[in-house]
Amino acid sequence: MTMAIDVKETARTQARYQRIARLYDGMEAVSERRYRPWRARLWSMVRGPKVLEIGVGTGKNMPFYPEGLDITAIDLTPGMLDRARNRAAELDIDVDLRLGDAQSLDFPNGLFDEIVETFVFCSVPDPMLGLQELTRVLKPGGRLFMLEHMRAANPTLGLLMDAINPVLVRITGANINRRTVDNISRSGLQIEQVEELGMGDIFKLIVAQRAS
Length: 212
Description:
By secondary structure, this protein is of the alpha/beta class. It has one domain: Vaccinia Virus protein VP39 (Rossmann fold). It is 40% helix and 24% strand. The protein has seven helices and seven strands, in the order αααββαββαβααββ. Strands 3-2-1-4-5-7-6 form a seven-stranded mixed beta sheet, sandwiched between helices. α5 crosses α7. The longest helix is centred in the C-terminal third of the chain and has 18 residues.
């Protein structure tokens, strides 16, 4: 069954990130020290050759792009995309940057060998719709690589994350209580690997595959 985009919530998400685009790198400067080795490891697994990056943001993954790949990168927010273009120019990286929504990808079925996203599905308004679209544009047998944070399995911590999530979403646009591994399983993608990276079971590296 095809799901419909929540237009209002998607517009709110775009507006939140547009508002903080100029501040975004500074806001994440401390946490990025933790994330950079994870980004490097994730991208070292990518073989392509035709790759889609979802939620390129300000281009934080660009220093880790492997050479020789055909990379298209999208983001929902014009302000973020402007900064990604500047970073690509500074790094002299050849990447096709486009405005786009993970919930409604403007690409034909089965176009990409691999898809990469880092800390994006915490913000996609309808994560199941987004995963449906990623599956659609992946080639049969294609793989999805993800870095994500999600709701802790610990009951007390999980309830705390649920309680403060509405406030954090309004401020930053990111949900901290998504059940992303469960969502991937429900989407029909086949999970190949889930690796816990830090803070107990909150941060994970995930590899999933579209059925051949």
